[in-house]
Structure formats: structure tokens, C-alpha cells
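Form P-L/3: holo structure prediction, ligand AR6.
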Amino acid sequence: MAELVLVRGDITEQEVDAVVNAANSTLLGGGGVDGAIHRKGGPEILAACRELRATEYPDGLPTGKAVATSAGKLPARWVIHTVGPVYSAREDRSALLASCYRESLRVADELGARTVAFPAVSTGVYGWPMDDGARLAIETARAADTAVEQIRFVLFSADAYDTFAAHLR
Ligand code: AR6
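OUTPUT (holo model):
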């Protein structure tokens, strides 16, 4: 089982094999984590994403799936892009959010990544409540069948960190 670690900080600064991007299905960038990764990682990542759109994913990456590119100038070797669901109070989309974590770890295994850093997927622009997003992230990571040795959750705010810490206990 992978070791679960919590860090308060910026995902773009993590020295891990792979960092996970909270992307959108276009794979062509956005705000939040996505904006920061492309800004710090440089144009190589966007070029790789455009290539994926021209080949494997002409209609975009579906919600709940994950795909890897190079990490450009980031300290990591790879970026694993995943598309979280937009939160809905009327419809339970938890299975899609859990799938983001599982699929990202599956891609990490294919790459041979041993250390993987995740943001709290969907809890920003996509509006997922932090408490539930943290619960799903921790539960899914704990249950994952993966060769990844360390799963690092990188939380931007003290609140997010404390919420994840409460679920880790
Ligand atoms: N490092 C770690 N966590 C961060 C960082 C960072 N540099 N920046 C933000 N967060 P979000 P989503 C936190 O909005 O909700 C983009 O436009 C943030 O506080 O990045 O999945 C994409 O292109 C929040 O808790 O991702 C999509 O269109 C969490 O990371 C859309 O946003 C996720 O926030 C995806 O929305």
C-alpha cells in the first residue's frame, strides 16, 4: 500500500515523479492548478496536450479519465492530466471523482512513477465541497491497488490541509 502524505504548498514545486493536473477535457489549459502547471512548466506541456488532442483524444479527455505528458520545466518527470467532475447538488458524481484518483494512479503505474503528487481535484473552479472531496481522495488512494510508493496530497490552504488531515486520521 502506498504511503499517504499531506503537504501544504504549491503542486508545481513538488519534487516527485509525477504531478497530477486538475485539467478540463480540452487539455488546453485553464485557471487554478492547470494555469499554474502550464505557466511554470512552459510551452512543452501544451504542445504535448495539443498532440494528444490531434491523435488519441480528438473530442477531449472524458471526465474521470487521466493521461500523461512530459512535465516541461517542472521538477517532476511527468504531468498526469485528469478531468474532475463539476460538482452538482442534484446528481451524485462521486464515482467520477474517485475515478480521477484511480485512473491517475493507473497511468502512474504504466509510467513506473513511484511518487505522485495530487491536488484536491474538483474543489476549486469545479465547486466540490472540500470536506467531501478530501474524504473521497483519501478513501480512494487508500483502497487503490498501485505500485506507487508515495501519494502526496498538496493542499494550497491551511483549511484544505486541516480537512485532509482530519480524514487521514
Ligand atoms: N497547488 C496546489 N493546489 C492548488 C494550486 C496550486 N498551485 N492552485 C489551486 N489549488 P482548481 P478544479 C487548489 O480550480 O476545481 C481549471 O480552470 C485549489 O485551491 O485548480 O478541478 C481547469 O482548466 C483547489 O482546492 O481545479 C478546469 O477548467 C484545488 O487546487 C477547472 O479549473 C483544485 O482547484 C478544474 O477545476
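COMMENT: The helical segments are 32-41, 43-54, 94-111, 130-143, 158-168.
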